[in-house]
Design goal:
Layout lengths: L30 E5 L9 E7 L4 E7 L4 E8 L2 E4 L4 E4 L4 E4 L5 E4 L6 E8 L5 H11 L3 H10 L3 E2 H4 L3
């Protein structure tokens, strides 16, 4: 394996680093935006999820355009790896390539905290912010919303 083709061709480097102070941007109540795709030139999106005990996460789905990675900071999370449910604990990592089936939920009596990494970056913020609203709408509107955000739930695919 080799490094990708150079994307910066200058000789001395440039001042371009971005520091995001620890005070988080407004969040959805369970997800904090660590690095939006707009802050990383579309290279990735990094989000922190804090789930309470017995919290539902995402049902089985896949993405066509992005990979998704999970890194458990604390607690235990149930992760579906496309074949079976596995338990991830502190320090565990799950990588899901484009097209890979996956899901997650907190079955435990304790909170869990994890990082989600999407690559390349995608504008996932609207999905996180409006999912609850669209969940109250018709199944057709919810499905269209999910597809617009590259979220293909397997239950939606059964309707086709």
């Amino acid at each position: 394996m080799s490094y990708p083709e150079p994307r910066y061709l200058g000789q001395r480097g440039q001042v371009s680093a971005l520091l995001r102070p620890a005070s988080p941007e407004p969040d959805t109540g369970f997800i904090s935006y660590v690095a939006k795709q707009e802050n990383t030139n579309g290279e990735f999106g990094l989000y922190k999820i804090d789930m309470g005990p017995k919290a539902m996460g995402a049902t089985e789905h896949f993405h066509r355009t992005i990979s998704e990675s999970f890194y458990v900071l604390s607690g235990e999370i149930r992760l579906y790896n496309g074949e079976r449910w596995v338990t991830g604990g502190e320090g565990d990592f799950l990588y899901v390539p484009p097209g890979g089936l996956h899901a997650f939920q907190n079955d435990s009596d304790d909170p869990v905290s994890l990082l989600l990494l999407f690559t390349p970056g995608a504008p996932r913020e609207e999905y996180f912010e409006k999912l609850e609203e669209y969940s109250q709408r018709s199944s057709e509107e919810l499905k269209a919303f999910r597809i617009r955000h590259d979220q293909y739930n397997t239950t939606d695919m059964l309707d086709d």
